[in-house]
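Quick illustration for those who missed Monday's session on complexes.
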Amino acid sequence: MTQRRPLVAGNWKMHGLRKNLSEVSAICAAVAEGIAGDAEVLICPPATLLIAAARICEGSKVALGGQHCHEEPSGPFTGDLSAEMLKDAGATYVILGHSERRSGHHEGNHSVHEKTLGALRAGLTAIVCVGETKSEREAGDALRLVGSQLIGSIPKSASSESLVIAYEPVWAIGTGLTPTPEDIAEMHHFIRVQVNDILPGQGAALRILYGGSVKPGNAAKLLLVKDVDGALVGGASLNSSEFMGIAGIYREFVRTT
Ligand code: PEP
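Prediction with phosphoenolpyruvate bound:
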């Protein structure tokens, strides 16, 4: 049986000033107390806070990540950040293909594929986001759409060590709406099978996160579902108590599937 270590990742999006670094300190303290059990806890703050957050997290078990990167290591790309820069600032992960980047910055699957290659080149673990819109789900097209995102976005050189998939139905992000546990289980199983086709032999150990309106009150219902290996959390990750309330479901938890 493959053991997958749960991952609870916080995506701060474009929120957070230096004064909010106290939340990072509080998360480090809670993790040190064992509140998240064996789960890995990751914070993806805005890039401006990475270096300061890295100082706070030094010596702790809390990991840091970026929210996006350019595919090239360096070059004339004003305003962009490379995976190497994120790594240099203290990140070990980077979120790629978030729906807000796919829609707001017109990032298609090919672009996500190239950025994922950039992340792997720099030695970052890529969290590649996939998920359908409300109309795609209502049209019965969710599995097909997510399948095409996976095929288009995942490079053949990725592995279950260097890649995490986050299933984030677009209609559930920041809305308070969530899929049923049955729908989540169906999609996560589908993703595992699809990724195993793309990366033969990697499916069993691949971590697949659920994201979309996860809160302390619904975390157990949404996350203690077969094939769900943690969460990508937006709004609730900005507050250390809420975030650790979510990670706290793993306190007594040992995954064996
Ligand atoms: C997200 O942005 O990745 C997300 C899941 O947001 P929220 O938890 O706020 O729905």
